[in-house]
Design brief:
Number of strands of chain A: 21
Distance between the termini of chain A: 27 Å
Order of helices and strands of chain A: EHEEEEEEEEEHEEEEEEEEEEE
Strand content of chain A: 35-45%
Shape of chain A: globular
Radius of gyration of chain A: 23 Å
Largest sheet of chain B: 6 strands, antiparallel
Oligomer: heterodimer
Helix content of chain A: under 10%
Number of strands of chain B: 11
Chain lengths: ~325, ~220
C-alpha cells in the first residue's frame, strides 16, 4: 500500500505531543500520513453549482466559460449538468468545448432530480490558470441549461505526494532522507499539497446569449454574493482572491467592476477587445473566516460581492462570464 | 474550536527539513500536525453559488419558481444541486453555511426549505440537514433568515451526521493515475434540494440566490 487516499479525513491530536514526552509513530504520524494523503488527494470544486437558466435553441450550441487555477494532483474533472426541455430534446455535451469527447443525452421536461454526469479525462496534470469550457449542443429540440457544477475528482492513490502509512510504524526509521515517507514524507507532502478552496464564485451564460450593457454602471446580480476567503496566517483578517471577466465591446470601451460590502473592494477593469476574451486576472482582498466562530463569520457579517457593468458612451459591453477563484499558495 | 491548535498556519521553511542534521523535536512535530489540521479545516469548499441576474439585463424574471403549486402550505421543489463533500474523522460532514435569497410572489406568505439528501433516499426529517426560512410576504428579493430543524437549530448552518453521510457514499469510476488502469473512488455525494411553499397558489415563490459552503465550525 502506498499513498492511499481515504474518503474520511484524519484529525491527529497535538495534545499528546509534550516536551519530554514521546512522539508516537502510531498515535501521531500514522494518522498524519493518512491525513496528508487526504489533504493532497481529495476533491476540489472548480465551479460550485451555478444556475445558468438560459436556452439553447435547436441546431445551435451553447458554450460556457469558467476560469480557475487548477490543481496538479487532478487527473479527471467531473461536470454535473441539469438540462430540461418543453417536450423532448437531444443534447450533445463536450468538455472542453469543441475538443472534448461527445456525450449524447436525451433531455426531458421538468427540472431533473438527478444530474447528467460528464467525465473530462485530462491528458496531462498541471496547475494552471485554465479556461474551463463546456458546450451543450441542442441536436433536436430547444434545451434549457438549468444548472451545473464541476469538480476535480478525488484520487484513490497518490504516487508523487502520497505517504506510505507503513513507513510510520513503530521501529521504522523516522525522519530519514527527503523521500515521501516517514515523518519527512508528511512534512514534504504538506509543503507541496494544494488544498485550496478553488472555485469561490462563478456567473456565466452561454456565449451566444451574453448580457449586454450600454450606459452607466448597473448591478449584474440581484443580490450580492456572500463570500469569505480562507484564513491562513495568524491575525489575518483577509485573504487574496483572483477574478476575471469574459467580455468584449462592440467598439470603444466598457468596464466591469467588482465591489464588496465589508472589505471595501472596488476594482474596475476596462474592456476594449471586440472578441470575447478573459480580462487579465486581478487580485482582490476580501474578509477571511474567523476560526473562533461556528459559522466562521467575522463579526457576524458576510462579505458580499457585487458585479457592475457599463458601456462607455454609445459603446456596448457584452459579458458571458465572471469567475472568482482562490490561487493563494499554502 | 477548529481542529488546529493555533487556528492558522505556522510558517515554516522547507529548507529546514529533510536532512539528518535537522532535529525533529516536539515543537516542530506540533507545528506539522497543526498545519495539517488547519489546512484540512480550511479545505472546505464552496458548493453552491446560485446567483440570479437582474431582470433588466437578463431579459428573464431573474428568479426561479416551482411549477405552479397545486396546494397551499406544501413544499414543491425549485432547484437541486449535487456536489462532493468533505468527511470528517468521526464520519460527520463539515458544517455548511447556508444562505437563501428569495421573495414572495405577491404578499402571499412564502417559505423556503433546504434539504441535504443522499444517494439512498431522503434523509431523516427533523435534523440539521434541513433548514427552513422564516416566512416572507415581501415581493422584493432579500436574504432570508431561518433555522435548521435539528437539535442545534442553527441560524446560518446545516450539518450531516455520520449516519447521514454514510447514506451519501457512492463509488465513481476513475483510473489509478493518468491513463492508468480503471478503478473506482469512494465519494460522499450530496444533493441540496430547495423547495418552496406559498399561502396562495396564485402567487408562486421566487428563489433568487442560494449559497452553500463548507466550514469546519467550532463544535
Amino acid at each position: 500500500m502506498s499513498g492511499v487516499v481515504q474518503v474520511q479525513r484524519q484529525e491527529p491530536s497535538p495534545d499528546e505531543m509534550l516536551s519530554g514526552g514521546p512522539i508516537s509513530s502510531g498515535r501521531q504520524w500514522y494518522p498524519a500520513a493518512f491525513g496528508s494523503n487526504w489533504l493532497a488527494g481529495q476533491s476540489a470544486v472548480l465551479v460550485p453549482n451555478v444556475v445558468i437558466d438560459k436556452s439553447v435553441v435547436a441546431g445551435s450550441t451553447g458554450v460556457l466559460h469558467f476560469r480557475a487555477l487548477t490543481r496538479a494532483i487532478a487527473i479527471e474533472r467531473v461536470w454535473m449538468l441539469r438540462l430540461r426541455t418543453a417536450t423532448t430534446a437531444t443534447a450533445t455535451i463536450k468538455a472542453p468545448a469543441s475538443t472534448g469527447a461527445s456525450l449524447v443525452v436525451g433531455v426531458s421536461p421538468g427540472r431533473m432530480a438527478l444530474p447528467i454526469v460528464y467525465r473530462e479525462i485530462l491528458a496531462s496534470q498541471a496547475s494552471a490558470l485554465t479556461d474551463l469550457t463546456i458546450e451543450v449542443a441542442a441536436a433536436t429540440g430547444d434545451i434549457e441549461i438549468d444548472s451545473l457544477c464541476c469538480f476535480e475528482l478525488a484520487r484513490i492513490e497518490l504516487d508523487v505526494l502520497g505517504v506510505d502509512p507503513q513507513t510510520e510504524r513503530p521501529r521504522q526509521s523516522i525522519y530519514e532522507g527527503t523521500g515521501v515517507e516517514s515523518a519527512t514524507g508528511v512534512i514534504a507532502s504538506l509543503f507541496t499539497a494544494d488544498p485550496r478552496r478553488v472555485g469561490m464564485f462563478h456567473w456565466a451564460v452561454p456565449v451566444i446569449t451574453p448580457v449586454t450593457r450600454n450606459g452607466a454602471y448597473t448591478n449584474l446580480l440581484t443580490l450580492a454574493q456572500p463570500m469569505l476567503a480562507r484564513k491562513l496566517s495568524d491575525g489575518a483578517n483577509s485573504g487574496v482572491l483572483n477574478w476575471s471577466a469574459y467580455a468584449k465591446v462592440n467598439a470603444g470601451t466598457g468596464e466591469v467592476r467588482v465591489s464588496t460590502s465589508n472589505s471595501g473592494v472596488s476594482d474596475p477593469v476596462t474592456v476594449s477587445v471586440t472578441s470575447f476574451a478573459w480580462t487579465t486576472a486581478r487580485e482582490i482582498e476580501i474578509d477571511c473566516e474567523d476560526m473562533s466562530k461556528n459559522d466562521g463569520l467575522p463579526g457576524g457579517l458576510w462579505d458580499d460581492l457585487q458585479i457592475q457593468i457599463r458601456g462607455n458612451g454609445a459603446d456596448t459591453l457584452s459579458i458571458a462570464a465572471l469567475s472568482v477563484w482562490d490561487a493563494e499558495a499554502t | 474550536m477548529s481542529t488546529s491548535e493555533f487556528e492558522c498556519r505556522i510558517l515554516t521553511d522547507a529548507a529546514d527539513y529533510g536532512l539528518s542534521t535537522n532535529p525533529l523535536d516536539v515543537a516542530t512535530s506540533r507545528y506539522v500536525i497543526n498545519n495539517l489540521n488547519h489546512l484540512s479545516d480550511e479545505f472546505g469548499q464552496v458548493l453552491s453559488c446560485m446567483s440570479s441576474t437582474v431582470a433588466a439585463l437578463s431579459g428573464k424574471t431573474g428568479y426561479l419558481t416551482p411549477a405552479t403549486p397545486a396546494a397551499t402550505g406544501v413544499f414543491y421543489p425549485v432547484v437541486s444541486h449535487t456536489f462532493p463533500i468533505k468527511v470528517r474523522a468521526a464520519g460527520q460532514s463539515y458544517k455548511f453555511r447556508i444562505r437563501i435569497g428569495g421573495a414572495s410572489g405577491n404578499t402571499a406568505s412564502t417559505l423556503f426549505l433546504a434539504q441535504l439528501t443522499g444517494g439512498s433516499g431522503l434523509l431523516t426529517s427533523g435534523t440539521d440537514a434541513q433548514y427552513v426560512t422564516a416566512a416572507t410576504t415581501s415581493s422584493t428579493a432579500a436574504w432570508l433568515t431561518g433555522a435548521s430543524l435539528g437539535p442545534n437549530a442553527y441560524t446560518t448552518l446545516m450539518e450531516l451526521t455520520s449516519e447521514q453521510v454514510n447514506r451519501c457514499l457512492i463509488s465513481m469510476p476513475t483510473t489509478i493515475d493518468l491513463g492508468g488502469d480503471d478503478a473506482s473512488v469512494q465519494v460522499a455525494m450530496v444533493t441540496l434540494l430547495i423547495s418552496a411553499s406559498t399561502a396562495n397558489v396564485a402567487h408562486v415563490p421566487r428563489l433568487y440566490n442560494v449559497m452553500l459552503a463548507e466550514v469546519i465550525g467550532t463544535s
